Amino acid sequence: MRPFFAAVTAAVLAGLAAPALAGPGDLALDDVKILSADTMQGRAVGSPGSQLARTYILERFKRIGLSPIGEGFERPFRFTRKDGVVVTGVNLVARIKGTEGGKTLLVTAHYDHVGVKNGQIYNGADDNASGVAGLLAVAEAFQEKPPKHDVLIVALDGEESGLRGAKAFAAEPSVPLASIGLAVNFDMLSKNAKGELYVSGSGPQPFLKPILDEVAKAAPVTLKQGHDTDAAGKENNWTFQSDQGAFAEKGVPWVYFGVEDHPEYHQPTDDFGTIPQPFFKGSVATVILATRAFDERLWEINKAAGR
Question: What keywords are assigned to this protein (predicted)?
Fold first, then answer.
């Protein structure tokens, strides 16, 4: 590890100092701020910034008390870019054991972004430091009150390069795909001028609608369903536009939480300072609420899905 990188890593890990009694979601803003800092250099897959982000997430896994499957959390994969360069990405996989067993609930968010372009850092605060913060908050919630079913907490790499990490996981899953009852993905949870968070998946999978209707009634933000079968035009159908697409292709039931595009999307202005904090906190509380509901009704979901 180069001296400069080691110093930056030490500084980032120092940011983990947090109140011992912090509850689920209390550190979400800190997670976004650290993961979207200039020191992460935009978290491009295969970059030193990606390694730094991975170091931070792994330390959070350990502090939450998550367990690996097998010998460790890291699952490397390789792919070849259009320019012929071979890139190594790394997925991070943890498991929380359920109290009753049965199917597994998979919860994902990608931690990569697009890196540095023309000397400007694309920090990706919303895309997708916010989703990773939501993922960690869900992990904290399930660690505090154990789920009924096993829950996989997976930070995926290479989403911006064509869902590479999700496709690698789906090709060589840490548990059999047939055992995954629902894949839940978070991608962009923090910015919407109207205070709206979307959830996709109930259009093609109507058995999810009653559950999501109930979640929407209790959610602290406006939770809207759509951007799947109701979408006008391919660009408005989100089914395959984030990591849930790799699981949808394999026939795994899926659901996706995210906001609509905004002026900072894939721009160097997607910084922590542009996040409306009350909305983001409400979004995190909403995805915790939703994943709890999915865990409680996972058997029902799979019966309706014919699995």
Answer: Signal
Q: What is d(CA 177, CA 251) in angstroms, rounded to the nearest whole number?
A: 9
**DSSP bridge partners of 240:** none
CATH code, domain carrying 65: 3.40.630.10
Predicted confidence at residue 87, as pLDDT, reads 97
Please enumerate in sequence order all residues whose Cβ is within 8 A of that of 236, keeping only pairs 6 or more positions apart, or say none.
Answer: 227
Residue keyed to tokens 């697009």: 114
Q: Give the count of domains, the chain.
A: 1
Residue 126: predicted pLDDT = 98
Residue 101 has pLDDT above 80, yes or no: yes
Sheet holding 74-80, edge to edge: 74-80, 86-96, 150-156, 104-110, 180-186, 254-258, 196-200, 222-225
Radius of gyration (Cα) for the chain, nearest Å?
Answer: 18
- Residue 31: both structure tokens together: 């997670």
Dihedral (Cα; 69, 70, 75, 78), 10-degree rounding: -140
* Statement: residue 18 has pLDDT above 80: no
Determine how many CB atoms are found less than 10 A away from the CB of residue 88: 13
**193-240 per-position pLDDT tens digit:** 999 999 999 999 999 999 999 999 999 999 999 999 865 566 689 999
Prediction pTM value: 0.93
Contact between 110 and 24 (Cβ < 8 Å)? no
d(CA 178, CA 88): 27
Strand blocks (E) in the chain: 74-80, 86-96, 104-110, 115-117, 120-122, 150-156, 180-186, 196-200, 222-225, 254-258
The answer to whether residue 16 scores a pLDDT higher than 80 is no
Domain that holds residue 295: 3-304
